[in-house]
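Second attempt. The first submission of Quino protein amine dehydrogenase had a stray character pasted in from the spreadsheet, which I only caught after the job came back as garbage. Lesson logged: always re-copy from the clean sequence file. Corrected sequence (490 aa) follows.
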Amino acid sequence: MSRTCSTPTSTMDSLGGGIPSSVSLSDDGEYAAQLNGKDLIIHLNPTSSEFREVQIVKIKESGSRFLKFSRSKRDAPSRRLLCASDSRILVWNLNPLQQLAEIENIESGALNVDFGSDENEVVLFHAWNTKLTIFGLDTGRSHVIKTPKFSHYNGFGYRPKTGQLTILLKPDTNDTLTIHEPRSYELIGREVLSTVDAQGLKWSPDGQWIAVWDAASAGTKVLIFTADGQLFKTFTGSAGSDDSLDLGVKGIEWSPVSAHSNQSEVLAVGKVDGTVDLLRSRTFACSATLSHVLQTEQHSPSIWRERYSAGGASLEYAEASGSSAFTMLPEPSTIQRGVLMMGFSHNGALLSTVDQTRPNIVWIWGLDGTTVLVSALVHEHAVRQVVWHHSSLQLLITTANSALPGVRYWSPHRTPSIVRIPASRNENAKLDVRWLPSDEGDGSRFWFGTPDDYALGFIEQGEQGTTQFQYLNTLAGKVVPGSHGTYMNR
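This time the job returned cleanly.
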């Protein structure tokens, strides 16, 4: 690993029209980067109301495949950015912008490149998952772990706060779970799993548990391990369930750490049959099962259906009875089944789900006390994202509607709304939304992105319940010179 430093340039020679541009945002939304041919465009303060400072770095080759920011941490001395191609990995400090390291002569065909447990580590998953290499930027040393099963984030994870690495391996015919010390990556624990084909692992946000789920063909099977790798329990379904009808697990999701108990109290197990088992982390027994079938005999949730407003120029939500909202839906055309998405609100009080049988409906469940369906949002197109706010009960939804790009906004305190965001036409409806975690309240800012650009803004509540998107900044495929030696976005 060689270390070289260079001064970022501010030339504009290769910034032309018609060149595809990709945008990457940091997890807190405070930094953005774009690749445009051999130009790496770094926006150092895109959320600021002042001048948006832009630096352009010339890289040695086009076709870079990975562009990642280090994750935000309170104790991190600096944020960093990596850019990786099939032959090299480049890493920069952001404050001030300065190249920190260059990792050369890497094997082509990397499956994933990202930062590791902190900004001082880079992880590289080699082609065919032959091995994982962890590079120490501060030490110049590297560590190798052979035969990782997956290169995606269901295949490995770092323990919250303390940073131990847990990873699924496939050294032979059996799945193996290993746990490694931070930084040194010495082996702490190794467990050969009783799984048919493990599909992933997830640490609980409190760092006390590791959950591994098996392939759906094995039926319901979730293994719960302690932080040091000891098997604590195997969950095989709720008591009294018929094993012959068990279609297995689609995915899992942990609830956030409770402010009262300082623990992750619930593990949601999404099933292929469209149900969700809720396991309480004290015993990991099933406390409730959610079914994506509307039942209004004992409780009346608020049901909202998307429709075109008068004239057909915009969309809006209209309140509907459960029977009318669901009988108007076309029969599902897909033979695929299972829970597609699950997400907890910041305090764990609410859970949103999307079922593959009806991929256009967002179900919102209340988990305080008796588990009940709070609301259901019915859309014309399949749901692509459901994103909870980091610190308040608000969520944003995107769908596969390419004709009218925008976001669907829901909170328990007001009528949901559909806010159109003027953006470039996007035939594939590849949209991305994310909240700025530092914002709270009704004026919370968020990024709205297409493959070509991102817009930063917030939803403004007008008179008579109207809503509109207020632009604050835009990251587009072109950058033009501004004043005082900086660059401004246009």
